[in-house]
Design brief:
Blueprint (H helix, E strand, L loop, with lengths): L2 H4 L2 E2 L2 E5 L13 H19 L7 E6 L5 H14 L3 E7 L2 H10 L4 E5 L8 E8 L2 E2 L2 H13 L10 E4 L2 H17 L13 E4 L7 H7 L28 H13 L4 E5 L6 E5 L4 E2 L1 H12 L7 E5 L4 H10 L3 E5 L3 H13 L6 E3 L5 E3 L5 E2 L1 H17 L16 E9 L4 H17 L5 E2 L7 E5 L6 E5 L7 E8 L4 H13 L5 E2 L2
Protein backbone atom coordinates (compact mmCIF):
# COMPACT_ATOMS: atom_id res chain seq x y z
CA UNK A 1 0.00 0.00 0.00
CA UNK A 2 1.31 3.45 -0.81
CA UNK A 3 1.35 6.25 1.75
CA UNK A 4 -1.84 7.85 0.43
CA UNK A 5 -4.00 4.82 1.16
CA UNK A 6 -2.13 3.66 4.27
CA UNK A 7 -2.84 7.04 5.94
CA UNK A 8 -6.49 6.00 6.34
CA UNK A 9 -5.75 2.87 8.34
CA UNK A 10 -6.23 3.23 12.08
CA UNK A 11 -5.98 -0.26 13.50
CA UNK A 12 -9.27 -1.93 12.62
CA UNK A 13 -10.94 1.30 11.47
CA UNK A 14 -10.59 3.76 8.62
CA UNK A 15 -10.17 7.39 9.68
CA UNK A 16 -9.27 10.72 8.15
CA UNK A 17 -9.96 14.45 8.06
CA UNK A 18 -13.44 15.08 6.65
CA UNK A 19 -14.15 18.76 7.39
CA UNK A 20 -12.40 21.70 5.71
CA UNK A 21 -11.33 24.91 7.42
CA UNK A 22 -9.33 23.59 10.39
CA UNK A 23 -5.79 24.95 10.46
CA UNK A 24 -3.19 22.26 9.86
CA UNK A 25 -5.81 19.65 9.00
CA UNK A 26 -6.09 19.12 5.26
CA UNK A 27 -9.10 17.11 4.14
CA UNK A 28 -8.05 13.66 2.94
CA UNK A 29 -11.33 11.80 3.44
CA UNK A 30 -12.61 13.23 0.17
CA UNK A 31 -15.67 12.16 -1.79
CA UNK A 32 -13.37 10.25 -4.14
CA UNK A 33 -11.50 8.43 -1.36
CA UNK A 34 -14.75 7.53 0.44
CA UNK A 35 -16.16 6.13 -2.81
CA UNK A 36 -13.02 4.13 -3.53
CA UNK A 37 -12.90 2.71 0.01
CA UNK A 38 -16.55 1.68 -0.30
CA UNK A 39 -15.68 0.02 -3.63
CA UNK A 40 -12.91 -1.82 -1.80
CA UNK A 41 -15.31 -2.97 0.91
CA UNK A 42 -17.80 -4.32 -1.64
CA UNK A 43 -15.05 -6.36 -3.33
CA UNK A 44 -13.84 -7.62 0.05
CA UNK A 45 -17.38 -8.56 1.13
CA UNK A 46 -18.07 -10.38 -2.14
CA UNK A 47 -14.87 -12.38 -1.66
CA UNK A 48 -15.68 -13.02 2.02
CA UNK A 49 -19.23 -14.27 1.40
CA UNK A 50 -18.66 -15.83 -2.07
CA UNK A 51 -21.67 -13.85 -3.25
CA UNK A 52 -22.31 -11.56 -6.18
CA UNK A 53 -22.77 -7.92 -5.17
CA UNK A 54 -26.44 -8.02 -6.18
CA UNK A 55 -27.01 -10.78 -3.61
CA UNK A 56 -25.69 -8.68 -0.70
CA UNK A 57 -27.58 -6.78 1.98
CA UNK A 58 -25.69 -4.05 3.88
CA UNK A 59 -26.82 -1.78 6.74
CA UNK A 60 -25.40 1.73 7.10
CA UNK A 61 -25.44 3.99 10.16
CA UNK A 62 -23.62 7.06 11.46
CA UNK A 63 -22.84 8.98 14.62
CA UNK A 64 -23.60 12.69 15.10
CA UNK A 65 -20.57 14.19 13.32
CA UNK A 66 -21.35 17.06 10.97
CA UNK A 67 -19.79 15.21 8.03
CA UNK A 68 -21.85 12.07 8.72
CA UNK A 69 -24.90 12.67 6.51
CA UNK A 70 -22.77 13.54 3.47
CA UNK A 71 -20.48 10.53 3.89
CA UNK A 72 -23.50 8.28 4.45
CA UNK A 73 -25.01 9.45 1.17
CA UNK A 74 -21.81 8.65 -0.73
CA UNK A 75 -21.45 5.20 0.86
CA UNK A 76 -25.07 4.27 0.26
CA UNK A 77 -25.05 5.40 -3.37
CA UNK A 78 -21.88 3.43 -4.09
CA UNK A 79 -23.38 0.34 -2.49
CA UNK A 80 -26.59 0.82 -4.47
CA UNK A 81 -24.62 1.12 -7.73
CA UNK A 82 -23.49 -2.51 -7.28
CA UNK A 83 -27.06 -3.77 -7.00
CA UNK A 84 -26.85 -4.12 -3.21
CA UNK A 85 -29.90 -3.79 -0.95
CA UNK A 86 -29.02 -1.05 1.54
CA UNK A 87 -30.71 -0.51 4.90
CA UNK A 88 -30.27 3.12 5.94
CA UNK A 89 -30.30 3.16 9.75
CA UNK A 90 -29.58 6.88 10.19
CA UNK A 91 -28.24 8.08 13.54
CA UNK A 92 -27.10 4.93 15.31
CA UNK A 93 -24.59 3.59 17.80
CA UNK A 94 -21.66 1.57 16.52
CA UNK A 95 -22.66 -1.57 18.49
CA UNK A 96 -26.16 -1.41 17.04
CA UNK A 97 -24.68 -1.68 13.57
CA UNK A 98 -23.22 -5.07 14.45
CA UNK A 99 -26.53 -6.14 15.97
CA UNK A 100 -28.26 -5.00 12.76
CA UNK A 101 -26.21 -7.61 10.90
CA UNK A 102 -27.47 -10.28 13.32
CA UNK A 103 -31.11 -9.19 13.62
CA UNK A 104 -31.72 -8.15 10.00
CA UNK A 105 -29.55 -10.97 8.62
CA UNK A 106 -27.32 -8.59 6.65
CA UNK A 107 -24.09 -9.67 5.00
CA UNK A 108 -22.32 -6.65 6.44
CA UNK A 109 -22.70 -3.16 7.83
CA UNK A 110 -20.91 0.17 7.75
CA UNK A 111 -20.80 2.64 10.63
CA UNK A 112 -19.63 6.17 9.86
CA UNK A 113 -17.74 7.30 12.95
CA UNK A 114 -14.41 8.45 14.33
CA UNK A 115 -15.23 7.59 17.94
CA UNK A 116 -14.04 10.32 20.35
CA UNK A 117 -11.85 12.11 17.80
CA UNK A 118 -12.39 15.84 17.08
CA UNK A 119 -15.39 17.02 15.05
CA UNK A 120 -13.40 17.48 11.85
CA UNK A 121 -12.42 13.81 11.63
CA UNK A 122 -14.58 10.91 10.53
CA UNK A 123 -14.20 7.38 9.28
CA UNK A 124 -15.69 4.01 8.46
CA UNK A 125 -16.05 0.92 10.61
CA UNK A 126 -17.20 -2.38 9.12
CA UNK A 127 -18.96 -5.45 10.54
CA UNK A 128 -19.97 -8.91 9.41
CA UNK A 129 -21.73 -11.63 11.41
CA UNK A 130 -18.29 -12.49 12.83
CA UNK A 131 -17.91 -9.03 14.37
CA UNK A 132 -15.72 -6.06 13.55
CA UNK A 133 -13.11 -6.49 10.86
CA UNK A 134 -9.49 -7.27 11.70
CA UNK A 135 -6.47 -5.16 10.81
CA UNK A 136 -5.62 -7.36 7.82
CA UNK A 137 -9.18 -6.95 6.50
CA UNK A 138 -8.82 -3.15 6.56
CA UNK A 139 -5.53 -3.53 4.70
CA UNK A 140 -7.25 -5.66 2.06
CA UNK A 141 -10.03 -3.09 1.61
CA UNK A 142 -7.55 -0.26 1.18
CA UNK A 143 -5.47 -2.34 -1.23
CA UNK A 144 -8.62 -2.95 -3.28
CA UNK A 145 -9.18 0.82 -3.33
CA UNK A 146 -5.60 1.53 -4.34
CA UNK A 147 -5.52 -1.12 -7.08
CA UNK A 148 -9.06 -0.35 -8.28
CA UNK A 149 -9.94 -3.98 -7.71
CA UNK A 150 -13.70 -3.87 -8.16
CA UNK A 151 -16.62 -6.25 -7.88
CA UNK A 152 -18.97 -6.63 -10.81
CA UNK A 153 -21.85 -4.13 -10.84
CA UNK A 154 -25.52 -5.02 -11.29
CA UNK A 155 -28.76 -3.09 -11.64
CA UNK A 156 -31.51 -3.20 -9.05
CA UNK A 157 -29.83 -1.75 -5.97
CA UNK A 158 -32.16 -0.05 -3.48
CA UNK A 159 -31.86 2.10 -0.35
CA UNK A 160 -34.51 1.38 2.29
CA UNK A 161 -34.87 3.50 5.43
CA UNK A 162 -35.27 1.40 8.58
CA UNK A 163 -35.64 2.28 12.26
CA UNK A 164 -33.33 -0.37 13.64
CA UNK A 165 -32.44 1.61 16.78
CA UNK A 166 -35.97 1.04 18.12
CA UNK A 167 -35.39 -2.71 17.92
CA UNK A 168 -31.98 -2.36 19.56
CA UNK A 169 -33.45 -0.30 22.42
CA UNK A 170 -36.23 -2.84 22.96
CA UNK A 171 -33.58 -5.54 23.35
CA UNK A 172 -31.96 -3.52 26.18
CA UNK A 173 -35.33 -2.83 27.83
CA UNK A 174 -36.32 -6.49 27.69
CA UNK A 175 -33.03 -7.46 29.29
CA UNK A 176 -33.55 -5.05 32.20
CA UNK A 177 -37.14 -6.24 32.77
CA UNK A 178 -36.09 -9.88 32.70
CA UNK A 179 -33.00 -9.64 34.92
CA UNK A 180 -34.36 -7.18 37.50
CA UNK A 181 -37.67 -9.08 37.64
CA UNK A 182 -39.36 -6.37 39.69
CA UNK A 183 -42.87 -6.61 41.12
CA UNK A 184 -43.86 -4.08 38.48
CA UNK A 185 -42.25 -6.09 35.70
CA UNK A 186 -42.77 -3.48 32.96
CA UNK A 187 -41.38 -0.62 35.10
CA UNK A 188 -38.38 -2.12 36.91
CA UNK A 189 -36.60 1.25 37.25
CA UNK A 190 -39.40 3.09 39.07
CA UNK A 191 -37.91 4.93 42.03
CA UNK A 192 -34.49 5.30 40.40
CA UNK A 193 -33.06 8.60 39.25
CA UNK A 194 -30.46 8.10 36.52
CA UNK A 195 -28.85 10.93 34.58
CA UNK A 196 -27.33 10.39 31.14
CA UNK A 197 -24.58 12.44 29.49
CA UNK A 198 -24.34 11.68 25.77
CA UNK A 199 -21.86 14.46 25.03
CA UNK A 200 -23.99 15.41 22.00
CA UNK A 201 -23.00 12.12 20.37
CA UNK A 202 -25.26 9.27 19.29
CA UNK A 203 -26.13 8.05 22.81
CA UNK A 204 -29.04 10.35 23.67
CA UNK A 205 -31.46 7.52 22.91
CA UNK A 206 -30.51 5.78 26.13
CA UNK A 207 -32.32 8.29 28.36
CA UNK A 208 -35.71 8.36 26.68
CA UNK A 209 -35.87 5.12 24.68
CA UNK A 210 -34.44 2.82 27.37
CA UNK A 211 -34.52 4.29 30.88
CA UNK A 212 -37.63 6.51 30.82
CA UNK A 213 -39.76 3.78 29.26
CA UNK A 214 -38.83 1.54 32.20
CA UNK A 215 -39.94 4.09 34.78
CA UNK A 216 -36.64 5.79 35.60
CA UNK A 217 -36.51 9.52 36.34
CA UNK A 218 -33.93 10.89 33.89
CA UNK A 219 -34.44 14.58 34.59
CA UNK A 220 -31.07 16.29 34.80
CA UNK A 221 -29.71 14.34 31.86
CA UNK A 222 -27.60 16.51 29.60
CA UNK A 223 -26.21 16.92 26.09
CA UNK A 224 -28.61 14.35 24.67
CA UNK A 225 -29.17 16.27 21.44
CA UNK A 226 -26.89 15.13 18.61
CA UNK A 227 -24.50 17.95 17.69
CA UNK A 228 -21.46 16.99 15.66
CA UNK A 229 -19.49 20.03 16.82
CA UNK A 230 -19.53 18.63 20.41
CA UNK A 231 -19.97 22.09 21.96
CA UNK A 232 -20.01 21.02 25.63
CA UNK A 233 -17.22 18.50 26.11
CA UNK A 234 -15.41 15.70 24.32
CA UNK A 235 -17.65 12.60 24.40
CA UNK A 236 -15.12 10.33 26.07
CA UNK A 237 -15.44 8.49 29.43
CA UNK A 238 -11.64 8.68 29.80
CA UNK A 239 -11.61 12.47 29.57
CA UNK A 240 -11.35 14.31 32.92
CA UNK A 241 -13.55 17.20 31.79
CA UNK A 242 -16.27 14.85 30.53
CA UNK A 243 -16.25 12.91 33.80
CA UNK A 244 -16.42 16.18 35.77
CA UNK A 245 -19.59 17.11 33.87
CA UNK A 246 -21.39 13.83 34.64
CA UNK A 247 -20.17 13.78 38.27
CA UNK A 248 -21.54 17.28 38.85
CA UNK A 249 -24.84 16.28 37.22
CA UNK A 250 -25.20 13.29 39.55
CA UNK A 251 -24.52 15.33 42.68
CA UNK A 252 -26.62 18.30 41.55
CA UNK A 253 -29.63 16.08 40.85
CA UNK A 254 -29.18 13.67 43.78
CA UNK A 255 -29.17 10.84 41.27
CA UNK A 256 -28.70 7.18 42.05
CA UNK A 257 -26.38 6.80 39.07
CA UNK A 258 -24.97 8.70 36.12
CA UNK A 259 -23.91 7.13 32.82
CA UNK A 260 -21.77 8.65 30.10
CA UNK A 261 -20.96 7.48 26.58
CA UNK A 262 -18.42 8.25 23.93
CA UNK A 263 -19.58 9.60 20.57
CA UNK A 264 -20.63 6.29 19.01
CA UNK A 265 -21.52 4.46 22.26
CA UNK A 266 -19.05 1.60 21.99
CA UNK A 267 -17.63 2.82 25.32
CA UNK A 268 -19.36 3.81 28.52
CA UNK A 269 -18.63 4.93 32.05
CA UNK A 270 -20.65 5.73 35.14
CA UNK A 271 -20.74 7.71 38.41
CA UNK A 272 -22.29 6.38 41.61
CA UNK A 273 -24.63 8.27 43.93
CA UNK A 274 -21.72 9.57 46.01
CA UNK A 275 -20.01 11.07 42.98
CA UNK A 276 -17.37 8.36 42.65
CA UNK A 277 -16.28 7.84 39.06
CA UNK A 278 -16.79 4.35 37.65
CA UNK A 279 -14.26 4.35 34.84
CA UNK A 280 -10.81 2.89 34.16
CA UNK A 281 -9.85 0.38 36.92
CA UNK A 282 -13.09 0.81 38.88
CA UNK A 283 -15.14 0.16 35.75
CA UNK A 284 -13.10 -2.98 35.08
CA UNK A 285 -13.70 -4.07 38.68
CA UNK A 286 -17.49 -3.63 38.52
CA UNK A 287 -17.72 -5.31 35.11
CA UNK A 288 -15.61 -8.19 36.44
CA UNK A 289 -17.80 -8.61 39.52
CA UNK A 290 -20.87 -8.79 37.29
CA UNK A 291 -19.28 -11.16 34.77
CA UNK A 292 -17.89 -13.54 37.42
CA UNK A 293 -21.05 -13.68 39.54
CA UNK A 294 -21.92 -17.20 38.39
CA UNK A 295 -18.53 -18.19 36.98
CA UNK A 296 -16.22 -18.94 39.88
CA UNK A 297 -12.65 -19.15 38.65
CA UNK A 298 -13.39 -17.42 35.35
CA UNK A 299 -10.74 -15.41 33.56
CA UNK A 300 -10.96 -11.65 32.92
CA UNK A 301 -8.84 -10.31 30.06
CA UNK A 302 -7.74 -6.68 30.39
CA UNK A 303 -5.19 -4.43 28.75
CA UNK A 304 -1.70 -4.16 30.20
CA UNK A 305 -2.13 -0.87 32.09
CA UNK A 306 -4.49 -2.10 34.82
CA UNK A 307 -3.50 -1.51 38.44
CA UNK A 308 -1.98 -3.94 40.92
CA UNK A 309 -5.02 -3.48 43.16
CA UNK A 310 -7.33 -4.62 40.38
CA UNK A 311 -5.48 -7.91 40.01
CA UNK A 312 -5.80 -8.52 43.76
CA UNK A 313 -9.52 -7.66 43.60
CA UNK A 314 -10.25 -10.01 40.69
CA UNK A 315 -8.25 -12.92 42.07
CA UNK A 316 -8.63 -12.61 45.84
CA UNK A 317 -12.05 -10.98 46.20
CA UNK A 318 -13.88 -12.37 43.16
CA UNK A 319 -12.11 -15.72 42.92
CA UNK A 320 -11.29 -15.14 39.26
CA UNK A 321 -8.12 -15.02 37.21
CA UNK A 322 -6.65 -11.85 35.75
CA UNK A 323 -5.07 -12.11 32.31
CA UNK A 324 -3.28 -8.91 31.25
CA UNK A 325 -2.78 -8.53 27.52
CA UNK A 326 -1.72 -6.00 24.90
CA UNK A 327 -3.22 -2.52 24.84
CA UNK A 328 -5.89 -2.07 22.18
CA UNK A 329 -9.51 -3.13 22.58
CA UNK A 330 -9.44 -5.46 19.59
CA UNK A 331 -6.33 -7.19 20.96
CA UNK A 332 -8.07 -7.73 24.30
CA UNK A 333 -11.25 -9.05 22.68
CA UNK A 334 -9.40 -11.40 20.35
CA UNK A 335 -7.37 -12.76 23.26
CA UNK A 336 -10.56 -13.55 25.19
CA UNK A 337 -12.02 -15.30 22.14
CA UNK A 338 -8.78 -17.30 21.73
CA UNK A 339 -8.79 -18.36 25.39
CA UNK A 340 -12.39 -19.56 25.18
CA UNK A 341 -11.57 -21.62 22.09
CA UNK A 342 -8.78 -23.23 24.09
CA UNK A 343 -11.22 -24.16 26.86
CA UNK A 344 -10.49 -21.28 29.25
CA UNK A 345 -13.69 -19.97 30.83
CA UNK A 346 -13.45 -16.28 29.96
CA UNK A 347 -16.68 -14.21 30.17
CA UNK A 348 -15.25 -10.68 29.79
CA UNK A 349 -12.68 -8.72 27.81
CA UNK A 350 -12.29 -5.11 28.93
CA UNK A 351 -9.85 -2.28 28.34
CA UNK A 352 -9.37 0.58 30.82
CA UNK A 353 -10.48 2.98 28.05
CA UNK A 354 -14.04 1.70 28.59
CA UNK A 355 -14.26 -0.84 25.77
CA UNK A 356 -16.01 -3.79 27.43
CA UNK A 357 -17.05 -6.94 25.60
CA UNK A 358 -19.00 -9.74 27.27
CA UNK A 359 -19.15 -13.28 25.96
CA UNK A 360 -22.91 -13.31 26.47
CA UNK A 361 -23.13 -10.41 23.97
CA UNK A 362 -21.04 -11.75 21.09
CA UNK A 363 -17.86 -10.22 22.62
CA UNK A 364 -19.15 -6.91 21.24
CA UNK A 365 -17.76 -3.78 22.86
CA UNK A 366 -20.97 -1.94 23.64
CA UNK A 367 -21.11 0.96 26.11
CA UNK A 368 -24.90 0.87 26.36
CA UNK A 369 -24.88 -2.86 27.08
CA UNK A 370 -22.24 -2.41 29.78
CA UNK A 371 -24.16 0.44 31.45
CA UNK A 372 -27.33 -1.65 31.22
CA UNK A 373 -25.61 -4.47 33.13
CA UNK A 374 -24.50 -1.96 35.78
CA UNK A 375 -28.05 -0.60 36.11
CA UNK A 376 -29.45 -4.12 36.43
CA UNK A 377 -26.95 -4.88 39.19
CA UNK A 378 -27.81 -1.59 40.93
CA UNK A 379 -31.50 -2.52 40.94
CA UNK A 380 -30.75 -6.03 42.22
CA UNK A 381 -28.54 -4.67 45.01
CA UNK A 382 -31.22 -2.23 46.14
CA UNK A 383 -33.46 -5.21 46.95
CA UNK A 384 -30.71 -6.26 49.39
CA UNK A 385 -30.39 -2.75 50.83
CA UNK A 386 -27.06 -2.20 49.08
CA UNK A 387 -25.62 0.30 46.59
CA UNK A 388 -23.57 -0.26 43.44
CA UNK A 389 -20.53 1.19 45.24
CA UNK A 390 -20.65 -1.76 47.67
CA UNK A 391 -19.63 -4.03 44.81
CA UNK A 392 -16.09 -2.63 44.71
CA UNK A 393 -15.69 -1.43 48.29
CA UNK A 394 -12.60 -3.61 48.75
CA UNK A 395 -10.86 -2.46 45.56
CA UNK A 396 -7.52 -0.93 46.50
CA UNK A 397 -6.72 2.05 44.28
CA UNK A 398 -3.33 3.75 43.94
CA UNK A 399 -2.45 6.90 45.86
CA UNK A 400 -0.69 8.32 42.79
CA UNK A 401 -0.62 7.58 39.08
CA UNK A 402 0.96 9.18 36.05
CA UNK A 403 1.32 8.58 32.31
CA UNK A 404 4.24 9.93 30.29
CA UNK A 405 4.61 9.51 26.52
CA UNK A 406 8.17 9.41 25.20
CA UNK A 407 8.72 10.20 21.51
CA UNK A 408 10.81 7.79 19.44
CA UNK A 409 13.09 9.78 17.13
CA UNK A 410 14.26 6.98 14.83
CA UNK A 411 12.40 6.42 11.55
CA UNK A 412 11.95 2.69 12.19
CA UNK A 413 10.18 3.35 15.47
CA UNK A 414 9.02 -0.22 16.03
CA UNK A 415 12.54 -1.61 15.81
CA UNK A 416 13.81 1.08 18.19
CA UNK A 417 10.96 0.56 20.64
CA UNK A 418 11.43 -3.21 20.69
CA UNK A 419 15.19 -2.76 21.21
CA UNK A 420 14.63 -0.46 24.20
CA UNK A 421 12.13 -2.90 25.70
CA UNK A 422 14.59 -5.79 25.34
CA UNK A 423 17.38 -3.70 26.89
CA UNK A 424 15.14 -2.63 29.77
CA UNK A 425 14.10 -6.19 30.50
CA UNK A 426 17.75 -7.23 30.76
CA UNK A 427 18.58 -4.14 32.85
CA UNK A 428 15.66 -4.70 35.24
CA UNK A 429 16.60 -8.33 35.82
CA UNK A 430 19.95 -7.14 37.24
CA UNK A 431 18.66 -4.36 39.50
CA UNK A 432 18.21 -4.93 43.20
CA UNK A 433 14.60 -4.43 44.29
CA UNK A 434 13.22 -4.50 40.72
CA UNK A 435 10.59 -7.24 40.44
CA UNK A 436 9.79 -8.18 36.84
CA UNK A 437 6.14 -9.17 36.34
CA UNK A 438 5.67 -12.80 35.34
CA UNK A 439 2.37 -12.07 33.57
CA UNK A 440 3.31 -9.12 31.39
CA UNK A 441 2.37 -9.72 27.76
CA UNK A 442 3.26 -6.24 26.55
CA UNK A 443 6.35 -4.16 27.23
CA UNK A 444 8.16 -4.35 30.57
CA UNK A 445 6.31 -4.18 33.89
CA UNK A 446 8.32 -3.83 37.09
CA UNK A 447 7.11 -3.64 40.70
CA UNK A 448 8.87 -2.07 43.70
CA UNK A 449 8.61 -2.57 47.47
CA UNK A 450 7.62 0.00 50.10
CA UNK A 451 11.11 1.48 50.38
CA UNK A 452 11.60 1.81 46.62
CA UNK A 453 8.45 3.62 45.53
CA UNK A 454 5.77 1.15 46.61
CA UNK A 455 4.29 0.66 43.15
CA UNK A 456 5.04 -0.29 39.56
CA UNK A 457 5.78 0.98 36.09
CA UNK A 458 4.94 -0.32 32.63
CA UNK A 459 6.88 0.83 29.57
CA UNK A 460 5.48 -0.31 26.24
CA UNK A 461 5.47 0.52 22.55
CA UNK A 462 2.42 2.24 21.07
CA UNK A 463 0.51 0.08 18.59
CA UNK A 464 0.51 2.63 15.76
CA UNK A 465 2.57 5.69 16.72
CA UNK A 466 6.30 6.44 17.35
CA UNK A 467 5.59 6.70 21.06
CA UNK A 468 6.58 4.74 24.15
CA UNK A 469 3.88 5.26 26.82
CA UNK A 470 4.99 4.91 30.42
CA UNK A 471 2.43 4.22 33.16
CA UNK A 472 3.43 4.51 36.82
CA UNK A 473 1.34 3.88 39.94
CA UNK A 474 2.27 4.03 43.61
CA UNK A 475 0.53 3.28 46.89
CA UNK A 476 2.56 5.98 48.66
CA UNK A 477 2.67 9.76 48.34
CA UNK A 478 5.79 10.68 46.35
CA UNK A 479 6.24 7.11 45.15
CA UNK A 480 5.71 7.90 41.48
CA UNK A 481 8.67 10.31 41.48
CA UNK A 482 10.86 7.71 43.19
CA UNK A 483 10.00 5.05 40.60
CA UNK A 484 10.39 7.50 37.72
CA UNK A 485 13.86 8.55 38.90
CA UNK A 486 14.95 4.91 38.95
CA UNK A 487 13.73 4.33 35.40
CA UNK A 488 15.18 7.61 34.10
CA UNK A 489 18.65 6.39 35.00
CA UNK A 490 18.14 3.74 32.33
CA UNK A 491 16.22 5.82 29.76
CA UNK A 492 18.77 8.65 29.67
CA UNK A 493 21.31 6.17 28.38
CA UNK A 494 19.05 4.98 25.53
CA UNK A 495 19.43 6.15 21.94
CA UNK A 496 16.48 6.82 19.64
CA UNK A 497 14.12 8.14 22.32
CA UNK A 498 13.43 11.72 23.40
CA UNK A 499 13.88 11.99 27.17
CA UNK A 500 13.60 15.37 28.91
Amino acid sequence: MNSYWSQFKSGTDIRGVAVDGVEGQKVNLTDESIGAITDGFVKWLCDKTSKKACELTVAVGRDSRISGPHIMEIVENVLKSYGIKVFECGLASTPSMFMAVIDMKCDGSVQITASHHPFYRNGLKFFTKDGGLESEDITAILENAENKSLAEKYAGGVIETVDYMSQYCKHLRDMICREVNADNYEKPLEGFKIVVDAGNGAGGFYADEVLEKLGADTSGSQFLEPDGMFPNHIPNPEDKTAMKFITEAVLRNNADLGVIFDTDVDRGGAVDSKGNEINRNRLVAIASAIALENIRGGTIVTDSTTSAGLKIFIENELGGKHHRFKRGYKNVINEAIRLNKEGVDCPLAIETSGHAAMRENYFLDDGAYLCTKIIIKMAQLRKEGKDISDLTASLKEPVESREIRFKITDEDFKATGNRIIAELEEYAANQKGWILADDSREGVRVSFGENDGNGWFLLRLSVHDPIMPLNIESDSAGGVDIILSKLMTFLKGCSGIEVK
